């Protein structure tokens, strides 16, 4: 496990996250709002580490091949009314 906290432009991605993802042979879940890490590591991990890579990038920030892009529709997970309530409670904040 790793947690990296630093200011903008401090080299978090280029000095720590990207090099580690190019060496780490196991699965990884990366939150990458700008798409930089996906752009630098997705193809590398697929071709050199033999990983199955899925990039969730709804705003098309990351420059990755289309075959690596995946989608997630949370409504596909709804099977019962309880599932729907759970999803709604996670999306909608109640005011007090």
Secondary-structure element series: HHEEH
Portion in strands:
under 5%
Number of strands: 2
What's the mean pLDDT score? Answer: 90
Shape: globular
The percentage helix is: 25-40%
Textual characterization of the structure:
The chain is mainly alpha-helical. It has a domain at 12-71. Helices cover 39% and strands 4% of the residues. It has a two-stranded parallel sheet with strand order 1-2. Helix 1 (12-23) packs parallel to helix 2 (36-49). 11% of the residues are buried.
Labels describing this entry:
two-stranded parallel ribbon; 96 residues; 4% strand; single chain; mainly alpha; 2 strands
List the helices and strands and how they pair.
Elements: H1 12-23, H2 36-49, E1 55-56, E2 69-70, H3 81-91
Parallel strand pairs: 1-2
What is shown here, in short?
The protein has three helices and two strands.
């Amino acid at each position: 496990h790793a947690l990296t906290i630093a200011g903008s432009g401090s080299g978090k991605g280029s000095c720590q996250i990207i090099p580690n993802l190019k060496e780490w042979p196991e699965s990884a879940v990366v939150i990458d709002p700008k798409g930089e890490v996906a752009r630098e590591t997705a193809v590398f991990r697929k071709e050199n580490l033999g990983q199955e890579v899925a990039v969730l990038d709804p705003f098309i920030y990351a420059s990755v091949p289309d075959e690596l892009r995946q989608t997630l529709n949370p409504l596909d997970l709804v099977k019962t009314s309880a599932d729907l309530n759970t999803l709604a409670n996670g999306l909608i904040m109640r005011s007090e």
